[in-house]
Amino acid sequence: MHPTDTVLILGIPLDNLTMEETVDRIHGMVAAYRGDGKPRLVATVNVDFLVNTLSWFSDAPRHPELLGILQHADLVTADGMPLVWASRLLGNPLKERVTGADLVPKLALASPGKKLSLYFLGGRGEVARQAAECLKKKNPGMIIAGVDSPFVHIEGEKLAEADEDDTEVIERINEAEPDILLVAFGNPKQEAWFHRNRHRLKAAVTIGIGGTFEFITGSVSRAPVWMQNAGLEWVYRFIQDPKRLWKRYIIGLLKFSVMVLPIIIQDRWKRLRMGGPKSDASEPPAPQGDTPLKNELNVVPLPNELDASVVAELKQQQEEWLAHGNGLVLDFRNVRFIDSSGLGFLLGLWKKGSARYAGFHMAGVQPPVMKTLKLNRVASLLSEHMVDDLEEIVNSQQSPALHRPFYHTLTSSKKARELQLYGALDAAQMQGFDTKRLLKAVASRHLIMDLTHLNFVDSTGLVLLLKIKKTVASSGHTCLTCGANTHVTQMLRVTRLDHFFPSLQDIRKARAVLDETILS
């Protein structure tokens, strides 16, 4: 068995680390922040987190923003034994579970020697302060950068005020400049809050820890160690509060089983069919010829089995691939099988390529591989990077950069304005966006917001849409929305804004409805 850095389960990349390795990785992130000033996110994922993110059967996520945050997170740990069990059944076992309840005390223990400061954010009432005091008592040299328990919004019409509400919280955090920010808002609130404030946060590493403060203070007791080691902690917690937790655990575990079982069956079946010694075609590939020059495509032929043994070799070359040329092309023509470590490797390449604005293509993906990608819920993520053959890339005459910026157009008539939105409206695109100018431009007439070409929106982008609609309404005019795709519609639904933004079919229908409104 070849241990891999990343194991993919249902489209979520899980870092394959022990508790000690996780602590070391976080310390490394703090050191990296001192060099590049980039805030980093650590997510601790359990079954409840996962089922809140994904839908039962489709690869269309239940919470598109949360899925995107997890796929881009700097570190994702498995905070639950069902994820570890699933990884074992998929043939690429995670080393161990790494829970927030265990991770925070470990970080507190190491903080005096590393001279790292911790900021406690969230939790109910005074539990954050109590948790800080409890850890300080056990670790006298621990540096407490601050404690705060604000209420934050990630859904409903109050989302329009989120930016202003967050500002005071961010200012207090930035004044303290903590090395580690512990956020206990629960999922998905803590991850969404970090995502929309990442660009203005001066904290090296932010960790979403859910109800960890309650465990630290003892207000919620943990299971005996033997039950934790046996993966039965959820049974202990369920017995403590069955009325509140039955839906979370029973339905959550059922949904997780329904989602992951087909993947396990397919993986086992393909391993049986492809059993026996590997052919030469399965040997780890190497780029042909010399190292590519700047602005040349780097084509990497892949073997027929992209599994843990191959990934271990491929990872040694990935930095060189991404450092040279216009982009990276993975030649999939011979690939017939991918396991969870191979999928994790692909997602890692996608993430690194996106971060560096480097091109990333998958050429010649065959039907068996596409079926695996769909079953593992990454087909929609990777589909825009797929091409039929190498000529399609060479002849495109376009940069393969993946970053598609958000932009808008505003057209006017005597009666109304039409605002067309394009690309991805997310926290990254909202940095430096002149919101006041746009609000001033749309304030004095009826407005149609055309979302036909809006591919994605997160909660930060929804803040802009809310402000636009409220600005138009406050001036006594009508604001209609049309053309929202399934991802945008789902984001409106999970943030409880679907009633506020009923979407008409298309721009023609919106114009007709607006004409009727004006005449009436």
UniProtKB/TrEMBL annotation:
Gene3D superfamilies (alphabetical): STAS domain (3.30.750.24)
Keyword Metal-binding: no
Alphabetized SUPFAM superfamilies for the sequence: SpoIIaa-like
UniProt keywords, alphabetically: Glycosyltransferase, Transferase
Domain of life: Bacteria
InterPro entries named among the record's database cross-references: MlaB-like_STAS (IPR058548), STAS_dom (IPR002645), STAS_dom_sf (IPR036513), WecG_TagA_CpsF (IPR004629)
MF (Gene Ontology): hexosyltransferase activity
Keyword Glycosyltransferase: yes
Domain STAS, residue spans: 299-397, 436-520
Protein name per its UniProtKB record: Glycosyl transferase wecb/taga/cpsf
Organism: Desulfoluna butyratoxydans
Taxonomy of the source species: Bacteria, Pseudomonadati, Thermodesulfobacteriota, Desulfobacteria, Desulfobacterales
